[in-house]
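INTERNAL AUDIT FORM
Audit reference: QA-55
Scope: verify that the stored structure record matches its stored sequence.
Auditor: D.O.
Record contents follow.
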Amino acid sequence: MKYQLLLIMGLLWMSSLVFFTAGAQRNNSYKNVEDMLVGYSLGAHLGTQGFGLNAAYATSEVFALRLEGSIAPLGFSKIRSWDNNKYNMDMKGRFYNGSLKVEVKPFRRASNSLLMQKLAVIGGAAYFFKAETDATALLKGDYHYGDIVIPNSDVGKFKANIKWKPWAPYMGVGIRNLYLGSLFKGGYLGLNIDIGSYYMSTPDVQVTADKLLSENTSNEGIIERNMRSYRWLPVVQVGISYGFLIIKT
């Protein structure tokens, strides 16, 4: 969890830095870029849901459709201690999804600040090709219970698989197409920032264990009940896109 928090803080810091840098760069060949519409754009993003690619089409200066695909292979390993015994804890998550989102910019009035004009309210849904986590616990060394010592080979391994159903709605806000620069006439580079969350289904839990740990499979229902509240999958991400401009007439 602490690594996820560090990642989120780092992304927010970089987003703020790029935003203020971009504001100073607007006095160039596209001084009036806010008076133009982005017809099509292609981009890449990175954040808490991993990395991926996206394509967007703005039907007007207010509405846009965005298609995204993201891959997030997550995981960590650490040693935990219980009752003076150490365990190797291994966690591996796989979240791969494709999503379709609708974006609305409700504050496009010229009297609003640039940041407010770029603010988008976002809603949509994703299909998760994979949305599961495997957690494995394996005793490190022999098991000690008072004066009793049980060899590691007799203890066994405990494994839990947590899986969510494929479909999940999404709600969030974003900053769209903050001007970074132009590559050639007819398009420009923009910065995108997203903060939101997917609302996942109630997860299913399957527990497997062997040897002396085999009786722990009876705790499957308890773990599943404890996991019912783990349905929010937060999204904090930044991305770069290249947009093809359509000048308003």
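Auditor finding: record pair retrieved intact. DSSP finds four helices and twelve strands in the chain.
Action required: none
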